[in-house]
Amino acid sequence: MREYLVFLGRCFRLSFVGNRQYHLWMLGLSVVALFGLHAYAKQIVAGLITTGMTDQVSWGMYIANFTFLVGMAAAAVMLVIPVYIYKNRELHDLVIFGELLAVSSIIMCLMFVTADLGRPDRFHHLFLRFNWPISMLTWDVLVLNGYLLLNLHICGYLIYQAYRGRTPSRSFYIPFVFIAIVWAVSIHTVTAFLYSGLGARPFWNSAVIAPRFLASAFAAGPAFLIITVQVIRRATGFRIAPKSIQTLRSLVTVALSIHIFLLGSELFTEFYTDSAHGASAQYLYFGLHGHWALVPWIWTSIAMSTTALMLLYLPGRERIVQLNIACVLLFFGIWIEKGMGLIIPGFVPSPLGEIVEYTPTLNETLVCLGIWAAGLLIYTVLIRVTIPVLTGELRADDAPTRVPAMETTPEPAPGS
Amino acid sequence: MVAIVFAAVAVALGVLDGGVSTAVPELGGDVVVPPGALTTDSPRTPLLSHPPRITLGGYLRSCQDCHALLDPGEHALTARGETARVQHGDVVLEHGLNDRCLVCHHPADRDVLTLLDGTKITFDETPRLCRQCHGLVGRDWERGVHGRTHGSWVTGSPEQRRLECTECHDPHAPAFPSYAPLPAPDTLRLPDKEHRAPHATEPRWPRSAIEAARGDRG
Amino acid sequence: MKQTRRSFLRRSAAAASGLAAVVAALSPLRELAEGEVPDIEEFLQKHYKEMSPEEMERALERIATKVERDFGVRPQIEDVRAQDGVEFVYALNLSRCIGCRRCVHACVEENNQSRAPEVQYIRVLEMPRGTIDLERGNHHYDHPTVPDKDHYYLPVQCHQCANPPCTKVCPVEATWTESDGITVIDYDWCIGCRYCEAACPYWARRFNFTKPKLPKEDLNPRMSYLSNRPRPQGVVEKCTFCLHRTRNGELPACLEVCPVGARKFGNVLDPASEVRQILAEKRVFVLKEEANTLPRFFYYFDEHYPRGGGAGKSAPPVGGETGPGGGG
Predict the structure, then answer these.
(1) Using a CB cutoff of 8 Å and minimum separation of 24, what contacts does C9-18 make?
(2) Shortest CB distance from C21 goes to which of B6, B178, B218?
(3) Which of A116, A137, A256, B128 is least buried, going by the fewest C-beta atoms within 10 A?
(4) pLDDT in tens, A281-320
(5) How far apart are CA B113 and CA B105, in angstroms?
(6) Subunit contact A126:C195, Cβ cutoff 8 A
(7) pTM, 2 dp
(8) A356 vs B: CB within 8 A
(9) Model ipTM?
């Protein structure tokens, strides 16, 4: 136990150590997070009136970001399946980064949900009267927190064992890994069911919501990781095998293809049928009764996603520049589509046919940026601590040897 | 450098920022409801008494005090809307097909009303009179389905009060007057006034002869 | 040694200014008024269904004290329970409603709703002829007089459904259906997640985005725990069929004020009640029946088009159909 506290203390101190780029990055994120905290403090006092939400559009940017980030967290499983089930060695390096991404994403999800609550001071009511299994929100609470604990355990155990120079015991993490695979699918499915179970919102009341969620998550998550591992490689010199990035690319391509197919399927159903059921889709894609605020956003998103898909199929897709462009495009395209393209149109028109549009306020945007900054801060710190452990640099004093923790990891990098 | 940046942020957030009020939008003023609009009284002044009495020349008179002296025949054929009357000129008769005063008022005794077969009824038995023609409405009224109920939903409760026909309907011009509507909703972040209502000229689906015939004006 | 002292000082300065920045970030919290931070008793207050009578007394006392402090009036607040053998049903006669919106504002006065931002439980839709497509309804009509002869009027409020989607989705069971059919909310239990607001097909629920603004002189001091006591910031509220009145045998405020008698209310379990007669004999329908919410709010007609001016003066529609409601 004491050793563990020492380890945590060393991690804490290590998170402040780094080169100039590192300090600038952390400082910038901290400043943004502080502004976000300040904006949230204002919201605590004045209430959710500081956001752009109304009785007509009663969920906005907070829940939009929450939905997107649940998908990101679930995408970590895209790495775990090939490595642990198909014994794909190339992705082995990246599993830990994926799991750390899952941890950071879930923490961001919890922050976004808390930011969205009207009475966060009554959080404890969830423990006292829990409407499980009827309310899908209770399922969401269970699976999100369970997933966080799972990933914290898996990462924490593996990293701590490496720090102590010990071989991890398979029974302490392999079963959890397999549970996490199933659990990752469940977190995003449950989140999708939150929406698709509501008969009051025809735009959401579709069976295709859950598959679309998973497909878009499994495209956006690995895309984010493709960019992230290149940043890690550049910043720390930690060697990532190019083959692992190419494997990720294949996963992204398949997921994005399915996602676009499902999008096409939804568009056909809404517009070919041409019934009142499609009013929200009409609002989103073409505007409704003169209200068209979301139209530029959704078409930009579709352009981004389809361009990304083309880039992922066209020759030259293995080139890192083309791949990076595709990843950035599809990441933002999917972010727009999950947020503005899913949450907001579900509320327009209202169940009584009223059209009230939604624009996030400055305060709301600052809170969102602050939470993203906090999440990136957490992710950066986690990686900052993990890499020295993996390369063997960060070791307990009583560790037997100074060998790298993971079999396929190359030599320690200079200057990290 | 780190210290300077954080100090600058601290100053910006603590001092320069205007506080919570900068994040709260204009909530709008209160909606104005005209005084007396939310009354639960009956919409028209009920008759003073059964039978009606009027003060003329310092004396309390009943209707027959005058009408006993008058020849009833001249008034029997007063058409709707025309006033061949010396008194009661303020009464405008707009009761649909019923354009004859003596359908309801007894020709020989103005202190009572009359049924179609000549039976005299008092002024507080008006529902019996109205139902002769308005039978279906009368049946509904009897069961509380038509008209206003006040006080209690408990069947047979002494608190329950049903308004009678003439408490809502002016018997001479029973159609309800128009009301001025109270203000429309003004919730948060509505579009500006021109864009609040759905665009009434744009039905969602193509117009057809059916809609035109239905009188659908969008 | 110099190196260490300098780096120590630098690090301390960074830490101190970082701490100052965090404190500055939290500085808006100093504007939290004392009444808005829950005290320990309120924090530990149990769910409505778990409170003992003594705990309820204390809660009512706490609420009454707060109202007296905020409004200068000691309210008369009770926890009125559902009666046995009663199931409330509401019926609204669309032939009679003239769209005057008096029900909307009577409800606002009776139920101590926020004036700014505006909270109104009842929303009246002006519907064009020949359609029940709610998207075609106009919520913001503003004619000099109503009714407008080319429209009919459809007031919508919480339907107190028998199969409510809102109670299904609440994660903390802050909203539930009582034995007399009314869906209620424990305002001291709601965490403000607004899932119920998203789930309601009739847009019946309202959220307090900020502290409700209620002028002192407009307070209705006759309150109950589950209905019209002033609600706090950050919780959901809705029509409760005026249970502080109806559970004592009275009629809801919206019905009392309706000048044309379009609203009918009563106990559907009583065969002699008005609502029972309506359900048995009038052509009733409910909104969004396909949602299977089983509302306890019915709409009915008893008259032909057109309306306004003398009775029965216009020709019947093309095809000779008698229009909805056919007679009565």
Answers:
(1) C10/B3, C13/B3, C14/B2, C14/B3, C14/B6, C16/B3, C17/B2, C17/B3, C17/B4, C17/B5, C17/B6, C17/B7, C17/B10, C18/A30, C18/B2, C18/B3, C18/B6
(2) B6
(3) B128
(4) 999 999 988 899 999 999 999 999 999 999 999 988 888 9
(5) 5
(6) no
(7) 0.91
(8) yes
(9) 0.91
